[in-house]
Design goal:
- By secondary structure, the chain is an alpha+beta fold.
- The protein has a single domain, classed as Beta Barrel (Porin).
- It is built from two helices and eight strands, in the order αβββββββαβ.
- Strands 1-2-3-4-5-6-7-8 form an eight-stranded antiparallel beta barrel.
- A hairpin with a 6-residue loop joins β6 and β7.
- The longest helix has 23 residues.
């Protein structure tokens, strides 16, 4: 319950902060994202290891997005808001708050232990706009707030003598995607 309250508070703070910062910026020399985009890439923010997503920019500082993709075990999804600091440069920083896939367990040869887990995630990164046109690259680092169920399942799997764990959980995920204006 605590993580969902913190997540909601973060979304409200970000939503109130970015409009004021966006108004303080001069009109951009490089076009800001606006309207509808489709993105292709890798990472949790696109719904899986490989995914595709749709973003809508109603304002230069705000977008809503939804993505779906392959998360090692099965199809998964992601949805959220992105708050961008508009700049006159090609590079713009952003923060994101999302809900959806944020963990997966896959045990080769023991598929009964596989699972996809959902929960809130916060992240940030940069948008690299093309020199001309409205298409852009999006690079992100995300911090998943993993559920207790996921953490308990992961610990139980690490304790199993019939399972060899080759790598532990990483505290962050990365995302890379290319977004085309529709």
């Amino acid at each position: 319950m605590h993580s969902s309250t913190s997540f909601s508070s973060l979304v409200l703070v970000l939503a109130s902060l970015f409009p004021a910062l966006a108004k303080a910026q001069a009109s951009p020399a490089v076009p800001s994202p606006d309207g509808l985009y489709v993105g292709f890439g890798l990472g949790q923010d696109l719904g899986g290891l490989y995914g595709v997503g749709i973003s809508y920019w109603p304002a230069p500082w705000l977008s809503g997005f939804v993505g779906g993709g392959w998360a090692v075990v099965d199809f998964s999804y992601q949805t959220g808001l992105q708050f961008r600091l508009p700049t006159e440069k090609r590079v713009s920083p952003f923060l994101a708050a999302m809900y959806g896939y944020n963990g997966a367990i896959h045990i080769k040869g023991k598929e009964s232990l596989d699972g996809i887990y959902y929960g809130p995630t916060v992240g940030g990164g940069i948008i690299l706009k093309q020199r001309s046109g409205h298409n852009y690259w999006r690079f992100s680092i995300n911090v998943p707030m993993r559920s207790q169920e996921f953490l308990d399942d992961w610990e139980a799997i690490k304790q199993r003598p019939d399972v060899e764990v080759k790598a532990d959980l990483l505290p962050v995920t990365i995302g890379v995607g290319f977004h085309l204006k529709l």
